[in-house]
């Protein structure tokens, strides 16, 4: 039915796009920390955003990692940040200076830090999809990686393959909380659904970086349209 994974991916993208809500966007080849995800659906649940400078910093994992260790009310010392992050002293000091410069972090007193009261995390929810023609084991491995930043994670196969997997491998998907979708040229069917994974945004560096990457990508697309 499909000559390549790319063809499968493109057709499934079009199906998702047709069914997308006004607050949802469909992105191909999203650059997550563990490699490109074939397709992500991004749901915007509020109006918060990041400045370009804030998004540029947080899109790098090391900045997101430091922010994930901070709090708006509980003060963190630089010693705590160094010991917990695993970065050396000079790296942590440099990152903190940059975060302070774009109003994400406040230094209160000597080497004591809080997330700025004026800074709010955008709440974006990711649903990830990995498209494969046959290799279900690789698909599950990639989908498990995607759960580091995704509330929902699915694998996508041609419909005939998906039906066989439901019959023979259903327990693997259920055990890993990975969804299974079958695709034809006309439509797609969700054969195995998933339970939403609740991700604590402020403590999840991978999710923070993913949100920043999406905002940068989305802004670039808007500028091209203009």
From TrEMBL:
<protein>
    <submittedName>
        <fullName>Uncharacterized protein</fullName>
    </submittedName>
</protein>
